[in-house]
Amino acid sequence: MRPSGAGACVATARAALRCEAALQLLERWAAACAPPVPLPRTLLGGGPTTLQLNVMPSDFSALTAQLHGRGCMYCGCSPLEPAVCLLCGALLCAGPNCRRKRAEGEPKEGECTRHARACGAGTGMLYLAHQGMVLLVDGSRAAYQPSLYLDAHGEEDKGLRRGKPLFLSKRRVAALLRMWLTHAVPLEVARARASSSSVIRANFY
Question: Over the range 162-177, which residues count as b (16 or more CB within 10 Å of their CB) and which as e?
């Protein structure tokens, strides 16, 4: 017989507290509510450091300097399409380009999808540095979001084609942080995919 009412809530809560992934997620949310701390310059080295979205580098050139010479945390090689996890700061290969040796029988999925499962219980927020866009991940599904970096006129530079100096948008950072804290990433992924004429293939990233 299944528990009901308040007893069911207690049982569910106890089960969640025994889940390591759930505890790690709770710690990140708690850290995000704390006062921001300066971003360490070694953040992108692949460690499990918690990243608060409002302490990303203030300009895009500083971000590219941090990325230069860094390797993907999974394959160790310089990513052809670098993705920075906005939750833990890890640098990894976006899309099917990662050169990590896969185990026999391992499902075919991108490293962003796999990392989101390990870092955010299947929910992820990553910055695609070469594309100038944010990637939201919900399980096997993903969707693009506008860039965190804008030029002096408040315009994006998708694909970094114009080459103008870009600066961090605090308003967009705050919107992403609010999305994460309110568990709205799955809803936003579904909304973006429903309203787009083309969608990202499942497990691509």
Answer: eeeebbbbeebbeebb
Q: Nearest Cα to 121, choosing from 2, 14, 20?
A: 20
Helices and strands counted in the chain (H then E): 6, 7
- How far apart CA 130 and CA 161 sit, in angstroms, is 10
Domain that residue 131 falls in:
44-97+105-195
With 70 as the cut, is the pLDDT of residue 192 above it?
A: yes
Say if residue 75 is exposed, middle or buried (CB neighbours under 10 Å; 0-12, 13-18, 19+). Answer: middle
How confident is the model at residue 55, as a pLDDT?
Answer: 60
Residue 124 resides in a domain: yes
Q: 26 in a domain, yes or no?
A: no
Total domains in the chain come to 1
Three-state DSSP class for residue 11: helix
> Which residues neighbour 171 within 8 Å (Cβ) at sequence distance 6 or greater?
none
pLDDT digits (tens, 9 = 90+) for 90-122: 999 998 888 888 777 777 889 999 999 998 889
Residue 56 exposed, middle or buried by CB count within 10 Å (0-12, 13-18, 19+)? buried
d(C-alpha 148, C-alpha 137), whole Å: 16
What predicted TM-score, i.e. pTM, was given to this entire model?
A: 0.72
